[in-house]
Specification:
Blueprint: E1 2-7, E2 11-17, E3 34-40, E4 49-56, H1 59-62, H2 66-82, H3 90-100, H4 109-123, E5 142-145, E6 152-154, H5 155-158, E7 166-167, H6 170-173, H7 180-203, H8 209-223
Parallel strand pairs: 2-4
Antiparallel strand pairs: 1-2, 3-4, 5-6, 5-7
Length: 224
Amino acid sequence: MIIDVFTPERGRHAGVVRGGASRKVAPILQPGAQLDLVWRARLEDHLGSFTVELQRSRAAIAMQHRTMLAGMNAALALLAFVLPEREAHPNLYTHTQNLLDLLDQPELWPLAYLQWETALLEDLGYGLDLSACAVTGSTDNLIYISPKSGRAVSAEGAGAWADRLLPLPAALKGEGTTSDAEIADALGATGYFLEHKLAAEQVGKPLPQARARFIDLLARVALT
């Protein structure tokens, strides 16, 4: 079996697991699992092979809550989509591990996922700067995001350009309590940059459908 893993020092990395389809090994190789890996290859640029040892399984926890399962699938699909092979992203690795460790806390997980998407954008060079207005420098009345720069814009700074700006959702500003509906709304903003910057400009393909399914489920859960 060929598996694709995210590692702290070698980034996204593929390799062969001998006997990976066997009844002994297959249960270990589940999405979201934390593995201890040893990689071997004759040459550095070869696919190589892994020996694996399970540290922590997360699939069973995720499957207890359909929103968590959909969210985990969305995060893993985005990592496989945007990360080049064998390029280290240690900060994003830490954010991802922390996110997956919250799968047993459904009340915290949607906001943690939103924060993970902003960390993903930051790590790949498309971070959002929502600290002050890009035009006036003011920190008051920030209600827009520039689709070009990813910086916040105030109502006063927007002027005649307001209709060309993205709304700045409250969940991205970290103000007060945040509902699932507000988080789903905020994911529309991060999704703009994922789609137009990462997917269109960098990867050249549409975003994974797993993300859209998660947001749709999160929005429907918020209505119940």
